[in-house]
């Protein structure tokens, strides 16, 4: 597993993890990720999400502690929280990195970076083909302050977890033109398509939430195992 280093810019790190299972809510989910050879988990702190976990609940801290003990990277997913609140939650729960998945301002990420937190920034993109110029406009400011990019489908007010895929040829074209930029592929990835997505885009880091659930919001160990196996090839 690739560990984050505090104070390090991760914008140009090739990969911060190979596989991340986002939106885990139970200890059995965490154990399934570790047992399957995964690298990271995401804890979702967006109250409107079906995958929400309460940061004030001792069970959430216990979940994070278990993940850390098992050697998994712990990423907190936030939507439009203040930098102060995110730092407070990250410190109390025990996170390794912060993921911004809302409409946060650049200054919010800059404050977190200045405080030494590794930051993943969700870059929300259309489902259809897009030009490299669109990526440059949306991503460049975040790269400048040292954020790692997470490419996802724009899900509107849901802020992720749509189950819809990006236009992989567009991602591949952008990635080929920007080989020094580190990024993670998200958006509709599941056991049935993650290998195809990796081959099509050249992604070395992938992230899923809904793709390993059955029913929605409930992680499925068999799907976690299949996703990670397919991603690792």
- For the record, what is the CATH homologous superfamily label? Aldolase class I
Count of domains: 1
Largest sheet: spatial strand order: 7-6-5-4-3-2-1-8
CATH class: Alpha Beta
Helix content: 25-40%
Radius of gyration: 16 Å
Topology as a string of helices (H) and strands (E): EHEHEHEHEHEHEHEH
Overall residue-averaged pLDDT value = 91
Ends apart, CA distance between termini: 16 Å
Q: How would you briefly describe this protein structure?
A:
Residues 20-229 form the N-(5'phosphoribosyl) anthranilate isomerase (PRAI) domain. The protein has 233 residues and is of the alpha/beta class. Helix content is 36%, strand content 16%.
Question: Can you walk through the features of this model?
Answer:
The protein is α/β, with parallel strands linked by helices and 233 residues long. It has a single domain (19-232), classed as Aldolase class I (TIM Barrel), CATH 3.20.20. It has 8 helices and 8 strands. It has an 8-stranded parallel beta sheet. Strand 1 (19-22), helix 1 and strand 2 form a beta-alpha-beta unit. Helix 1 (27-35) runs parallel beside helix 2 and helix 1 (27-35) runs parallel beside helix 8. The longest helix is centred in the middle third of the chain and has 13 residues, at 132-144. It is globular, with a radius of gyration of 16 Å.
């Amino acid at each position: 597993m690739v560990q984050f280093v505090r104070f390090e810019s991760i914008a140009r790190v090739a990969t911060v993890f190979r596989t991340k299972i986002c939106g885990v809510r139970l200890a059995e989910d965490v154990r399934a990720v570790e047992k399957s050879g995964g690298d990271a988990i995401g804890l979702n702190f967006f109250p409107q999400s079906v995958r929400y976990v309460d940061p004030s609940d001792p069970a959430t801290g216990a979940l994070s502690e278990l993940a850390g003990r098992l050697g998994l990277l712990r990423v907190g997913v936030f939507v439009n929280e203040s930098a102060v609140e995110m730092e407070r939650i990250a410190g109390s729960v025990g996170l390794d990195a912060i993921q911004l998945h809302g409409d946060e301002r650049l200054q919010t990420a800059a404050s977190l970076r200045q405080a030494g937190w590794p930051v993943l920034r969700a870059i929300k993109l259309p489902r259809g083909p897009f030009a490299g110029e669109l990526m440059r406009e949306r991503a460049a400011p975040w790269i400048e302050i040292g954020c790692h990019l997470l490419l996802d489908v724009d899900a509107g007010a849901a802020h992720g977890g749509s189950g819809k895929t990006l236009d992989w040829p567009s991602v591949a074209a952008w990635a080929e033109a920007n080989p020094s930029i580190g990024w993670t592929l998200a958006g509709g990835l599941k056991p049935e398509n993650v290998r195809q997505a990796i081959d099509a885009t050249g992604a070395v880091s992938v992230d899923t939430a809904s793709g390993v659930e059955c029913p929605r919001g409930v992680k499925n160990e068999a799907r976690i195992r299949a996703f990670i196996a397919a991603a690792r090839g």
